[in-house]
């Protein structure tokens, strides 16, 4: 390399030409409801979680909980525990996560999820905990 202009080039040419994927979730992504209950919530036909619990409607979208409780919702990872299965080839370790979620105002949910990675287990268990939110006294 005679000059420094080619220093930014990788094995397949200049790095500036290759688009990079940006990791992480898009926070401002618009929620598109999938279920009938989700559409009713988004159209403001259902105004509170009490109406959903009154008729024992199953909540299948975590965005419904986010819509009503959003900022007041707090979650806490209770335990992360390695569990092992013993196939013929050796051991297969997975991680089981337990999360409690609530708004400190009479609503809470509990989630349990098992996954190959801890981060995936925590992400999944938070969604499951949101889906299991019930009023408590």
From TrEMBL:
Bias kind Low complexity: ranges: 1-11
Pfam family name, one: Ribosomal_S5
Cellular component GO terms, alphabetical: ribonucleoprotein complex; ribosome
Superkingdom as given in the UniProt entry: Eukaryota
Domain S5 DRBM stretches: 73-136
A Gene Ontology BP annotation from the UniProt entry: translation
Biased segments, Basic and acidic residues type: 12-29
Keywords: Ribonucleoprotein, Ribosomal protein
Entries under SUPFAM superfamilies matching the protein: dsRNA-binding domain-like
Record InterPro entries: Ribosomal_uS5, Ribosomal_uS5_N, Ribosomal_uS5_N_CS
Molecular-function GO terms, alphabetical: RNA binding; structural constituent of ribosome
Region spans: Disordered: 1-29
Name of the protein: S5 DRBM domain-containing protein
Record lineage: Eukaryota, Metazoa, Chordata, Craniata, Vertebrata
């Amino acid at each position: 390399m005679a000059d420094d202009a080619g220093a930014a080039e990788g094995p397949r040419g200049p790095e500036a030409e290759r688009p990079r994927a940006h990791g992480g979730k898009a926070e401002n992504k618009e929620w598109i409801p999938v279920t009938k209950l989700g559409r009713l919530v988004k159209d403001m036909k259902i105004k509170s979680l009490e109406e959903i619990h009154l008729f024992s409607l199953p909540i299948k979208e975590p965005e419904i909980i986010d819509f009503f409780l959003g900022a007041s919702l707090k979650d806490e990872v209770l335990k992360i525990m390695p569990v092992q299965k013993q196939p013929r080839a050796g051991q297969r370790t997975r991680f089981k996560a337990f999360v409690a979620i609530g708004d400190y105002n009479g609503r809470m949910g509990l989630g349990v999820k098992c996954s190959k990675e801890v981060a995936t287990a925590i992400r999944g268990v938070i969604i499951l905990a949101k889906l299991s939110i019930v009023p408590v006294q």
